[in-house]
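ok new one. same drill as before - C-alpha cells go in, u give me an amino acid for every spot. 256 of them this time. try not to just spam alanines like last time pls lmao
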C-alpha cells in the first residue's frame, strides 16, 4: 500500500474531525465552545465599556487580558468545586477543557495587542526601553525594568498556556498517555501563579506615582477598579483548592 502524502494526511484528518463534530459528543463539545466563546466576548465587552476614560487601544488589550483571567479562574475553579460537591457539580468537569482552551486564545489575543499596540513590534520596547535621543543619548535606555520583567513573566505564562492548548484533545491524551497528559496539565497552576505576578504589577505598581511616570507619562490614571476584585478572585480560588485538598486528605485517611 502506498504511503499518503502530507496533503492527503491533512485532508484525512480534516474529514475525521468533521465526522467527529457531527456525532452527539462532537455537537455537545461544539455547543460548549460556542457558549464559552460568547461568554468571553461578553466579559471582554463589559471590561471594555467600564473604562471609558482610557484610550481605545489600551482599553482593548486590557479587556482581553482581564477576560482571559476570568476564564482561567473559572477553568481552575471547576476541579475543586466538583471535588467539594461531587453529586451536584461533577457535570461542570465537562466544561473545563473548553474554558481552558478559550482562556489560552483570549490570552494570545491580549499578548498580540500589547506587542502591536504598546511595544510597537520592538523587543526593546517590550522590555521597558525607550528612545530619548532628544537629550543626547542615542541608545535605548531602560526606564521601566518592572514593565519588562512583568512582560517576560506574561510571555512564559502564555507559552505554557499554548502548550496546554496544543494537548487539549482526545488525540493528545491517546498519544501521550493518561499519566503523562495529566502531569503536563498540572502546569495550569504554574500558568495561574505567573498570571498573578504579571497582572499584579500592572494593577498595583505600573501606574503608581513614580519617577518614571512623572517623566514619561502624562498624568497618573485613576486606580484600576478591578484590582481588588482580582485579589478577591485569587483568594477564592486558593480557598477552594485548599478546601478540596483538605477534603481529599480526610477521605484518604478515612479509607486508610
Amino acid at each position: 500500500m502506498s504511503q499518503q502524502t502530507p496533503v492527503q494526511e491533512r485532508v484525512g484528518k480534516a474529514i475525521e474531525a468533521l465526522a467527529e463534530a457531527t456525532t452527539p459528543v462532537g455537537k455537545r463539545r461544539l455547543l460548549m465552545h460556542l457558549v464559552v466563546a460568547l461568554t468571553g466576548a461578553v466579559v471582554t465587552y463589559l471590561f471594555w465599556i467600564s473604562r471609558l476614560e482610557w484610550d481605545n487601544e489600551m482599553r482593548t488589550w486590557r479587556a482581553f487580558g482581564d477576560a482571559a483571567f476570568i476564564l482561567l479562574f473559572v477553568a481552575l475553579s471547576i476541579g475543586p468545586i466538583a471535588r467539594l460537591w461531587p453529586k451536584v457539580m461533577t457535570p461542570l468537569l465537562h466544561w473545563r477543557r473548553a474554558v481552558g482552551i478559550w482562556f489560552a486564545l483570549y490570552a494570545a489575543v491580549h499578548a498580540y495587542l500589547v506587542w502591536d499596540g504598546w511595544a510597537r513590534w520592538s523587543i526593546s520596547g517590550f522590555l521597558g526601553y525607550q528612545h530619548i535621543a532628544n537629550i543626547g543619548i542615542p541608545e535605548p535606555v531602560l526606564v521601566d525594568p518592572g514593565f519588562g520583567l512583568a512582560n517576560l513573566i506574561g510571555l512564559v505564562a502564555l507559552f505554557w498556556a499554548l502548550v496546554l492548548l496544543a494537548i487539549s484533545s482526545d488525540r493528545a491524551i491517546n498519544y501521550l498517555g493518561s499519566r503523562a497528559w495529566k502531569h503536563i496539565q498540572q502546569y495550569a497552576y504554574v500558568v495561574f501563579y505567573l498570571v498573578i505576578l504579571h497582572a499584579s504589577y500592572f494593577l498595583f505598581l505600573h501606574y503608581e506615582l513614580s519617577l518614571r511616570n512623572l517623566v514619561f507619562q502624562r498624568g497618573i490614571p485613576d486606580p484600576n477598579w478591578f484590582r481588588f476584585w482580582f485579589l478577591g478572585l485569587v483568594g477564592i480560588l486558593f480557598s477552594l483548592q485548599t478546601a478540596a485538598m483538605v477534603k481529599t486528605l480526610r477521605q484518604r485517611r478515612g479509607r486508610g
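DSSP finds twelve helices and two strands in the chain. and btw The longest strand covers residues 129-130.
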